[in-house]
Design brief:
- By secondary structure, the chain is mainly beta.
- It has a domain of about 100 residues.
- About 10% of the residues lie in helices and about 25% in strands.
- It has two helices and seven strands; from the N terminus they run E-E-H-E-E-H-E-E-E.
- Strand 3 and strand 4 form a beta hairpin.
- The mean pLDDT is about 85.
Length: about 160
């Protein structure tokens, strides 16, 4: 009797963590560690803001408090290499992201897009808790999230 074939699925390796408990080295798209999507990919990007790691120029960084929690605040400027998780709902709503998802015949945002953003990451979880457009026609727009509690993942 022949045995049925069962697919072999490689198990994903554990990521390498830095001394602060945050992920120090990511794996490629071969292993998908994304959180489930809620409403759109903006939430996925917010919970795992890897799109901010490359394709941005960091103008400044400082330690701040965000709704009573320690956070890092940076002013970022997206470059032509900015590659959001999903271009229709990026963390940085900029022209680079819009050009990726809009068809050539679709209208662009009237007045253009922001070129500089204030971004805050919770320093314990790494979650992007805040973005704010610093220029452009929607200056001040962005998101703001309050973390009520978090389990300390430091290893």
């Amino acid at each position: 009797m022949r045995q049925p074939l069962t697919p072999s699925v490689p198990s994903a390796p554990e990521p390498r963590f830095a001394d602060d408990g945050l992920v120090a080295e990511r794996f490629g798209d071969e292993y998908d560690h994304d959180v489930p999507m809620y409403v759109n990919y903006h939430w996925v990007a917010m919970l795992d803001p890897r799109e901010l790691a490359d394709g941005t120029v960091i103008e400044s960084v400082r330690e701040v408090t965000h709704h009573g929690r320690p956070a890092w605040e940076a002013v970022l400027r997206p470059t032509a290499d900015y590659d959001p998780r999903c271009s229709c709902c990026p963390l940085l709503d900029c022209a680079v992201a819009a050009e990726e998802y809009l068809r050539p015949d679709e209208p662009r945002r009237e007045g253009g897009y922001a070129t500089r953003f204030e971004v805050r990451l919770d320093s314990v979880t790494g979650i992007c808790v805040s973005t704010r457009e610093l220029d452009g026609p929607r200056r001040g727009d962005g998101h703001d999230v309050r973390i009520e509690a978090a389990h300390d993942q430091a290893r």
